[in-house]
Amino acid sequence: MKFFREVLLVVLAVAAAILPVAAVLAAGEAEREDRVDPAEGSLLDIVGASIEQREHSVSLETRFHLRAAEAFGAAGDGSTVCFTFVRQRERREICAERTRGKLIATRDGKRIAATVKTSANLLVVRASDAKFKLSTGAYDLSVRSNAASCDNATTADRCADRAPDNGAYNVRVWRVVQTGCKVRGTLEVRHGRRVKQVALTFDDGPSRYTGDVLRTLDRRNVHATFFILGQQVSSGKSALRKMMRDGHEPANHGWSHGLMGGGGPAATRELKATQKAVRGVTGYTTCVFRPPYGDTGPDLRRRVRALGMTTIIWDVDPLDWRTPGTGAIVGRVVSGTRRGSIILLHDGGGNRSQTAGAIDGIVTRLRRRGFEFVTVSELLRYEPVTKLER
Ligand code: ZN
């Protein structure tokens, strides 16, 4: 049962015992009789069902009247329990099936990699929302069981059951929202591991050029990291929200773009104020920090880590802020990039139309060389902190 206790968020828990429901709903005795589950006492008599979600992992559970492992054993090969999710034109059927003595899972008739477990009266099918092909939002859920062979197979009713008896459970698959990350390892980095990944980073925004940058990144399906100045947050709220929606990483660049390498309490105040401002708009707590001008030092590094962040420098710098022309920016980035590179660009602090214009070329040419674009915290393999949201 340990696994169940570890589930952090119970999205829905319906353990609808059939008789109590009937007692509430039924007006007369005859009706009450009718509502008694015809499968009562049969092998795969279902008492209730629920769905639980922890990050992208979804557990579908059904509770039987009998011990699940024994019931499935007696019910024979070919016996199934199916969870049917319906909304508008979308329909998913996820089944656990006993085949040659083993329990396997299928989605819409095709076998999928999922964990199927029985424990006491429970049967649990667990996989990622992607494996189940369940998208965020509300569904109607019903569960059916079918025993291939029954103890008492005089009527088909005794071989099958459905929960709920009528209608469906209203369930919801929640959106997984990242709210931060857990940093580890070295206090300061210039590049990631030498794998075929790179991180595009943009400093000094949000500014009037950030929208252009975001549109291009979105069109090319690239996730980047934005080192945000605290003092720019109040005028750049909508850009920040879009950044977050599109899957980019908001990051910390201090408050006012002063030199911070000396550290001291003033540095901590800037870091904290920026973290708070970004969190206020995006709900995300920054876990990477870039010192303005790359001005760093041991006291600053410790203060950054004390706030749950890592100091990020760079290993590719095309000097885009000097506006050398879009072609030069693309050329310098492409020739300087290695595996695991962190590429320094700017979306604020001046006219950044050349930088915005260079993104397309950078993406095309680095993808041609086999690079994948990731955020800085992904490049550094930091564990995401997430929450579930409607
Ligand atoms: Zn800067």
Output mean pLDDT. 88
Helical coverage, percent range:
25-40%
Q: Which molecules other than protein and nucleic acid are bound? A: zinc ion
Tell me how many strands there are: 22
Helix and strand composition category:
alpha/beta
Tell me the span between the first and last alpha carbons.
Answer: 28 Å
Oligomerization = single chain
- Spans of at least 5 consecutive residues whose pLDDT stays below 50 are 1-36
Question: Quick one: biggest sheet?
Answer: 7 strands, antiparallel
Helical stretch tally: 12
State the shape: elongated
What percentage of the residues does DSSP assign to strands (E)?
25-35%
Integer-rounded radius of gyration: 28 Å
Please give a structural write-up.
This protein is α/β, with parallel strands linked by helices and 390 residues long. The chain has helices at 2-6, 18-25, 29-34, 68-75, 129-132, 210-219, 237-245, 265-282, 298-306, 326-336, 353-368, 376-379; strands at residues 12-14, 46-54, 57-64, 80-87, 90-99, 102-107, 110-112, 115-119, 122-128, 137-146, 160-163, 169-173, 175-182, 188-189, 197-205, 225-228, 249-252, 288-289, 310-312, 342-346, 372-373, 383-389. The strands form 5 sheets. Strands 4, 5, 6, 7, 10, 11 and 12 form a 7-stranded antiparallel β-sheet that branches. The protein has a 5-stranded antiparallel β-sheet with strand order 1-2-3-9-8. Strands 15, 16, 17, 20 and 21 form a 5-stranded parallel β-sheet that branches. A hairpin with a 2-residue loop joins strand 6 and strand 7 (110-112). Bound molecules: zinc ion (ZN). Residues 203-204, 253, 257, 292 line the site of zinc ion.
